[in-house]
């Protein structure tokens, strides 16, 4: 190869390096928080984790990289298996605020492993496994959803509340419109199940959602006791 060939090759290699650091392979995150009362109050029911009944508060479901068109990447790196030893400092917080409600009863590592491998591996360009869990915990604390709702008189008391009021209470507290998802209890009541809050690609700031998930909520929904 002549000198010209080498300079072109060097330019291409430089561009490759530069691009791999400046481009994420997703557009934003959904921070998805679940209401334990709704997860448990369905036909399939639930199991408390081995540490006991979780607090009556929103728990983390996951931090999900997403594309602006509503599609999303998943299971991006089979070589990056969940490694407990990287999150030992976070386990006690995870047990409190990212509790698993799936059966059979377990400590929670299965749920965290699933979320890391399905979703976390798709945001490794911006955060490693430790930061994936740490950022999720910080974001949940910052959202402080239960306080946002109770401040507006919306409580987990099995009563029915306006979807619009729930949405506005959260918007007033965090500054951005959340996605709200419902499920049905065995009596076919529509219940507040999950809240989606959008987060920038750095995984640290709330943003307006580029696209909201379809929530299947009617105009009045039940906020289940837990
Ligand atoms: P479901 O069908 O219960 O809504 O979702 C099943 C799973 O698919 C979720 O737990 C999540 O892992 C993934 N999923 C569903 N919707 C979305 C979405 O809008 N964005 C991302 N990133 N994942 C999703
Ligand atoms: P998704 O693919 O929906 O993000 O992940 C949900 C998976 O995590 C399911 O396989 C589910 O059994 C498991 N899982 C374990 N604990 C929980 C929990 O507390 N809530 C939800 N939604 N899924 C859980």
TrEMBL record:
GO terms classed as biological process: RNA catabolic process
Function description: May remobilize phosphate, particularly when cells senesce or when phosphate becomes limiting.
GO CC annotations, alphabetized: extracellular region
Annotated family: Belongs to the RNase T2 family.
CDD domains reported for this sequence: RNase_T2_euk (cd01061)
Gene3D superfamilies noted in UniProt: Ribonuclease T2-like (3.90.730.10)
Protein name: Uncharacterized protein
Keywords from the named record: Disulfide bond, Endonuclease, Hydrolase, Lyase, Nuclease, Signal
GO molecular function, one term: hydrolase activity
Active site per UniProt: 61, 115, 119
Species this chain originates from: Brassica carinata (Ethiopian mustard)
Signal peptide: 1-22
């Amino acid at each position: 190869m002549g000198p010209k060939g080498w300079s072109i090759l060097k330019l291409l290699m430089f561009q490759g390096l530069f691009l791999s650091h400046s481009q994420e392979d997703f557009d934003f995150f959904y921070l998805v928080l679940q209401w334990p009362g709704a997860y448990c109050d369905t036909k399939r029911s639930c199991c408390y984790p081995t540490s006991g009944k979780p607090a009556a508060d929103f728990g983390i479901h996951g931090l999900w990289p997403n594309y602006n068109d509503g599609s999303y990447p998943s299971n991006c790196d089979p070589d990056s298996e969940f490694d407990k030893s990287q999150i030992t400092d976070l386990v006690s917080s995870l047990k409190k605020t990212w509790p698993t409600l799936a059966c059979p009863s377990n400590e929670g590592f299965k749920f965290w492993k699933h979320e890391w491998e399905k979703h976390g591996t798709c945001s490794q360009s911006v955060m490693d496994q430790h930061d994936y869990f740490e950022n999720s915990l910080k974001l949940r604390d910052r959202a402080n959803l239960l306080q946002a709702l109770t401040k507006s008189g919306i409580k987990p008391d099995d009563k029915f509340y306006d979807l619009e009021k729930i949405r506005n209470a959260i918007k007033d507290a965090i500054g951005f419109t959340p996605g709200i998802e419902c499920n049905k209890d065995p009596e076919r009541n529509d219940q507040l199940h999950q809240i989606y809050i959008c987060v920038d690609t750095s995984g640290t700031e709330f943003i307006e959602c580029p696209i909201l998930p379809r929530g299947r909520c009617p105009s009045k929904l039940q906020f289940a006791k837990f």
